[in-house]
Amino acid sequence: MRERPWGFVVNPLAGSGRGWQVWRALEQLLVRADVPYRVWVTQRPGEAVLLAREAVRCGVRAVVAVGGDGTVHEVVNGMWETGVPLGCLPAGSGNDFVRALKIPDEPRAAWSRLSAFRVRPLDLVRVNEEIVVNAAGIGLDGTVAAAVNRSRYKRWLNRMRMGKAAYVVGLLHVLARFEPLSVTLEVDGRLLRFPRTWLVALCNLPFYGGGMNICPFAQGDDGQLDVCVVSGIGPGRLLALFPHVFRGRHVRDAAITLLRGKEIRIAVERPLLGHMDGEFTVAATWMAQVLPRALMVL
Ligand SMILES: Nc1ncnc2c1ncn2[C@@H]1O[C@H](COP(=O)(O)OP(=O)(O)OP(=O)(O)O)[C@@H](O)[C@H]1O
């Protein structure tokens, strides 16, 4: 009997067209190796949620997201409750999810890793009504995510294979306009107040924004959510601190508070831009709850 097919959900526009290139390269590999597969290609934003659901209905052995973190986010929201494993072939600008899982960037190497079919459990996080697989953030980082997603420079940088730099450009672009604000956090029932807060990052895995190691100690299977609050400094010190985030060295600074918990509630004084796996959204209250080992990943 022929084995169950692999299911691929492809965002052709991820990484400004890299999604399609990666898929074409992979498809040749699959055909040559006689690997059974089915493919669903997105035609609009948000569609990967439905296509992932459809793939599971068709009985695939795993759903592989071909795209960036936004595609992974949508695919997971479509299939996390089904018990079918998730795979990912990186083709986006940031690719922070695969960075944390140490999946190689090169499609052939990534496929060779996925096709070994070793699965491990990963925690997920419910943030308001959505499922987050990598990280969410509110404040400056949400505003940056929104600016980058709308920008032209993201496309240019992607074309030059410098997609990761888009978030750095985005930060410089947004910093001058962003007003820090008071934030109230409740971490497993413990109430904390932070004046003059730039951002609150909620991390299941350590990286976001194209390689920023914002919560270096986050582990995706520890049943806990790592939180990084940046507060109490001016824009100059924030800029000086920024280069250190790529190596996770920002955590030594007094402006950084690291917290950890299973249930986190954030209230802010005005509705604020935030992001969930790099896709932006607006809210004044954020409820985050860890769903321990809710997803199997390849
Ligand atoms: N066919 C499509 N046309 C337009 N937008 C799409 C289409 N398919 C998916 N999208 C949207 O593209 C957005 C970006 O996708 P994705 O995050 O995978 O790539 P990226 O932004 O290049 O990578 P990263 O998030 O890793 O920086 C998502 O918001 C998704 O909803």
TrEMBL record:
SUPFAM superfamilies cross-referenced by the UniProt entry: NAD kinase/diacylglycerol kinase-like
PANTHER family: SPHINGOSINE KINASE, SPHINGOSINE KINASE RELATED PROTEIN
Molecular functions (GO terms): ATP binding; kinase activity
Gene Ontology BP, a term: phospholipid biosynthetic process
Record key words, sorted: ATP-binding, Kinase, Lipid biosynthesis, Lipid metabolism, Nucleotide-binding, Phospholipid biosynthesis, Phospholipid metabolism, Transferase
Family classification: Belongs to the diacylglycerol/lipid kinase family.
Cofactor(s) the protein requires to work: Mg(2+)
Coiled coil regions in record: none
Protein name (database record): Diacylglycerol kinase
Organism: Calditerricola satsumensis
Domain of life assignment: Bacteria
Domain DAGKc: 1-130
Record NCBIfam families: YegS/Rv2252/BmrU family lipid kinase (TIGR00147)
InterPro entries, A to Z: ATP-NAD_kinase_N, Diacylglycerol/lipid_kinase, Diacylglycerol_kinase_cat_dom, Lipid_Phosphate_FormReg, NAD/diacylglycerol_kinase_sf, YegS/DAGK_C
